[in-house]
């Protein structure tokens, strides 16, 4: 039986519409920052997937609004996991950003799972989301190592694909803006890794089910800069007002080494596939018109 934390019932319709949901889905209300809140959801489960992390726009107090909720929320979930004698493995959704924000690295050598972002540099640059994800994952490893919990972490890059809920998440909103000619939100990315949302889900399942899976796994299909991205999208969708080019920012060149997850038999979808599925979803939900 799958257990998912619950919130406002109006936000859950898309979950109940999933195939098999009425037979196999159980919703349990939980609060990320409340200790013990996940006990009921986790007790008796063989596997736990912790995917939630605060993502905010304008931040007044990064410590209280994003860092503490990310770190303490992760600890609250893991403390509940510790109480569950049936637990086999925890899969934590981290982020590829936790490996690429560093003072110095050789751009000719693709980054792998041994790399960690610098918390000090994140604080200096005020990259609060990256800082929170890095601190949360490091905290998770420390807690699980001390308490004998089998932990595997997945580090997705920028996730693209169809959207289940009717309200768009921040990532999907950024993509919609880009397809409609906006540059401001994407400009800051400079160079970025992209991955299909289906691949992110499949990667989580694979590292949970594969007995030999251990440690951290980068989950990213393609790393390209903004100009390369809009060139691909303009060819795919010539009727849309996609920007032609971006202001060039000073961003370090990097690639990801994804051999670790690929060694388990994993194959990523292309950037064309992920954006095609994303655009189809945006059109079907009425957010975008191709005419």
Topology at a glance:
Blueprint: E1 2-6, H1 13-16, H2 21-24, E2 25-29, H3 39-42, E3 47-50, H4 62-82, E4 89-93, H5 119-125, H6 128-147, E5 151-156, E6 158-160, H7 170-179, H8 184-187, E7 191-196, H9 197-209, E8 215-219, E9 222-225, H10 226-236, H11 259-262, H12 271-284
Parallel strand pairs: 1-2, 3-4, 4-5, 5-8, 6-7
Antiparallel strand pairs: 7-9
Helix pairs in contact: 4-6
Q: How many strands, what sense, and barrel or not for the largest sheet?
A: 4 strands, parallel
How does the overall form come out from the CA principal axes? globular
How many beta strands in the DSSP annotation?
9
Show unreliable segments. 1-7
Q: Indicate the mean pLDDT.
A: 91
Helix content: 25-40%
Instruction: Output the radius of gyration.
Output: 19 Å
> How many helices does DSSP assign?
12
User: What order do the helices and strands follow?
Assistant: EHHEHEHEHHEEHHEHEEHHH
Strands of the widest sheet, in order across it, are 3-4-5-8
User: Which structural class should the secondary elements be placed in?
Assistant: alpha/beta
Fraction of residues in β-strands: 5-15%
**Distance between the first and last residues' Cα:** 43 Å
Please name the defining characteristics of this protein.
single chain, 291 residues, alpha/beta, 4-stranded parallel sheet, 3-stranded mixed sheet, disordered N terminus
Can you walk through the features of this model?
There is one protein chain. With 291 residues, the chain is an alpha/beta fold. The protein is built from 12 helices and 9 strands. It has helices spanning 13-16, 21-24, 39-42, 62-82, 119-125, 128-147, 170-179, 184-187, 197-209, 226-236, 259-262, 271-284; strands spanning 2-6, 25-29, 47-50, 89-93, 151-156, 158-160, 191-196, 215-219, 222-225. A 4-stranded parallel beta sheet has the order 3-4-5-8, sandwiched between helices. Helix 4 links the parallel strand 3 (47-50) and strand 4. Helix 4 (62-82) runs parallel beside helix 6 (128-147). The longest helix is centred in the first third of the chain and has 21 residues, at 62-82. The radius of gyration is 19 Å and the shape is globular. The model is unreliable at 1-7 (pLDDT under 50).
């Amino acid at each position: 039986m799958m257990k998912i934390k619950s919130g406002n019932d109006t936000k859950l319709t898309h979950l109940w519409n999933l195939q098999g949901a009425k037979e196999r889905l159980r919703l349990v209300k939980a609060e990320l920052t409340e200790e013990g809140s996940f006990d009921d959801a986790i007790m008796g489960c063989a596997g736990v997937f912790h995917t939630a992390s605060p993502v905010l726009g304008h931040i007044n107090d990064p410590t209280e609004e994003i860092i503490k909720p990310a770190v303490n929320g992760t600890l609250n979930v893991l403390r509940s996991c510790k109480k569950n004698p049936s637990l086999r493995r925890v899969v934590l959704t981290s982020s590829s950003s936790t490996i690429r924000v560093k003072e110095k690295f050789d751009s000719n050598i693709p980054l792998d799972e041994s790399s960690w972002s610098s918390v000090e540099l994140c604080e200096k640059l005020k990259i609060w989301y990256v800082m929170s994800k890095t601190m949360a994952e490091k905290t998770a490893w420390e807690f699980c190592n001390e308490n004998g919990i089998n932990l595997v972490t997945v580090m997705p890059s920028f996730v693209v694909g169809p959207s289940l809920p009717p309200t768009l998440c921040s990532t999907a909103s950024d993509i919609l803006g880009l397809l409609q000619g906006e540059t401001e939100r994407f400009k800051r990315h400079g160079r970025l890794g992209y991955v299909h949302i289906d691949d992110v889900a499949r990667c989580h399942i694979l590292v949970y089910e594969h007995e030999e899976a251990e440690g951290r796994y980068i989950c990213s299909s393609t790393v390209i800069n903004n100009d390369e991205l809009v060139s691909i999208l303009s060819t795919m969708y010539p009727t849309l007002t996609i920007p032609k080019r971006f202001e060039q920012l000073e961003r370090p060149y990097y690639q990801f080494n994804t051999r670790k997850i690929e060694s388990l038999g994993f194959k990523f979808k292309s950037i064309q596939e992920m954006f095609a599925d994303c655009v189809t979803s945006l059109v079907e939900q009425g957010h975008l018109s191709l005419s």
